[in-house]
Each structure stands twice: as C-alpha cells, then as structure tokens.
Amino acid sequence: MDLKKSQGLVVPNRQVRKVRRRSRMRRREELIGYLFASPIIIGILVFATYPFLASFYYSFTDYNVIQPPYWTGLQNYHDLFSDPEFWHSLSNTVIYSVVVIPLNLCCALGLAVLLKQKLRSIGFFRALAYLPSVIPSIAATILWLWILNPQYGVMNNLLSALGVNGPDWINDPNWTKPSLILMSLWGIGPSAIIFLAGLQDIPETLYEAARIDGAGRFTCFRYITVRLVTPTLFFNLVLGIISALQTFNEPFIFGGNGGGPEHSILMYVVYLYQTAFQNFQMGYASAMSIILFLIILALTLLVLASSRRWVYYEGIQPK
C-alpha cells in the first residue's frame, strides 16, 4: 500500500484524499450558506449599516441635502444641548415612556393570564386580543381621534352616561399625553401573546405543589408566575423601551405635525422629523438621531446588566 510521510507520521493516501474531499465539501456548504444568507446581509449593510455611518458623519456637518455637507465638528451637538425644543421634546418622550412602558407590561401580562385560561373558545379570544395590532397604526390613530372627540366621541358619550363630564382630550394640553397613553394600550396584543408563550412554559406541577402547601392564587401568581416569566418580561421590556422612545405615528397624527396644543405631545422623533424633512437641517437631525441611539443603547445595557438580579432562567436564582 502507498504511504505518505507527513511530520513524521505515516498517513495512507486514501485517508488524505478523504480529508481533502471533506474540506472541499465543507467549503462548498459554507459558500451555499453565505449565498442564501446574502440577501439579509446585503439588506443590513445597505439599509442599516450605511445609513448609520452616514448619519454619524453628517452629525458633524452642516448639511441641507441640496448643498454638499460642510464640516462643522461638534457645533451641531453644542447647538442641540442649548435648544429648548430639543429638551422639551426629550422631556415629553421621557414622561410618556415612563408611564407607557410599565403600564403596557402590566396590562399585557394581565391579558396573557386571562388568555391562558382553559376555555372552549379561548382561541377566538386570543385572536381577538391580537387583532388590534394588525390594524395599521395610522388608521388606528384616526379611529382614536374619533373616539376621543370631545363633542361626538364615544369616550365622552360613555362618560356622560355615567354622569361625568368628559375632558377635551384633543385640544387640552393637560389631556393630550393621557390620550396618547390610553391609545398605546390598543397595541398590547403582541406583548400579551409573547407573555402567553412564556406562561405556557411554566410547569403545572409547580402550581399543584404550591396549592398542596396551601398557597392561594395571589401567592402562586407572585412567587411562581411573576418570577418564572421574568425572561419574557425582560424581552418585552427591552422592546418596549425601544418602541416608546421612537414613537412617531400617534403623536404626529394626533398633534397635527405641530406637537399638539402648546407642543404638549411634541415627541423626540417628531421633532427630529420636522428638523430633517421640513427645515432640511440634516446635519442637526443626524446629531439628534445619534443621541437617541446612545440613549437607547445605554438604557438597553442598563437593563441587561440589572437582569442578573431579577431574571430567573430555568428556575436559576438570580445573583
């Protein structure tokens, strides 16, 4: 038999050919894998990576789309931090997010608990809970404008039937933010379905053992349901932070592109849109987008770091 010496070892030629054939097959499989993954890779590079890098560059320039960008260094950031509209829109967004994020999480978890019940027609109710999120947000916002209309809206008609004078939801600056917060509950269906998936992964034996020990429903919910659903809660929390800080459609339509009465619902992204596509201050708007990215990144990393203390993975006690 033909033998081949390699590094002092005698290896049969047949075995060498097998190794080479396997390496060629492996390279071919990798090439095919990259070929199938190329559309999403190209999409990320073209529609995500390049716009981010371009925004980062334009944030250091004076750019109005028509004329070439002119390098100004940190001037946009300096002007931004001295802009009262920037701080006003940021404060509106923070107030909205601080209320909406925990409210939506609590309501979505409560809805998921109801949808977990073993009923004959529970599939219909689950589809009904998810249905509002299928409606486009613009159409849903126009619908809510009709519901919250102070003169002929459904909400004030219901309140008047109860003997309560309904507020001017649309025109009163004290009620525009509560109106947006109320509208946000319209889209908790996806979060509720995600919570439902997390609830269905909790073993029923834990509840049975707790009931044998005399635990009631509230005790089971507090010490079993809430703790074991924390990974799903963590996921929905991160998505909620990203979504709330980037809310645009509802305040843009509800406020008529002007931020509502007294700019009470002038959100950060709405002001960014006005700056970029109405005032054509692309460099200034790019600086705003970079700051928003850093805020979302910092909050996400903060939640990720704190998750070690309150998220239970597979029943493992957090540190």
Describe this structure in words.
With 319 residues, the protein is mainly alpha-helical. The chain has two domains: 3-58, no CATH class; 83-310, MetI-like fold (Orthogonal Bundle). Helix content is 70%, strand content 4%. It has helices spanning 13-58, 75-81, 84-115, 122-134, 137-147, 154-161, 173-184, 189-200, 204-212, 217-228, 230-245, 249-254, 268-278, 282-310, and strands spanning 3-6, 9-12, 61-62, 70-71. It has a two-stranded antiparallel ribbon. Strands 3-4 form a two-stranded antiparallel sheet. Strand 1 (3-6) and strand 2 (9-12) form a beta hairpin. Helix 11 runs antiparallel to helix 14.
Query: What is the molecular shape?
Result: flat
Number of domains: 2
What do we call the CATH topology of the largest domain? MetI-like fold
Major pleated sheet: 2 strands, antiparallel
CATH homologous superfamily assignment of the largest domain? MetI-like
Tell me the distance between the termini.
62 Å
What share of the residues lie within helices?
over 70%
CATH structural class of the largest domain:
Mainly Alpha
CATH architect. name of the largest domain: Orthogonal Bundle
Strand order of the largest sheet: 1-2
Mean pLDDT: 87
What does the radius of gyration come to? 27 Å
The SS-based structural class is: mainly alpha
Strand content: under 5%
Structure annotation, total helices:
14
| H and E string | EEHEEHHHHHHHHHHHHH
Number of strands: 4
- The parts where pLDDT drops under 50 for at least 5 residues are 1-11
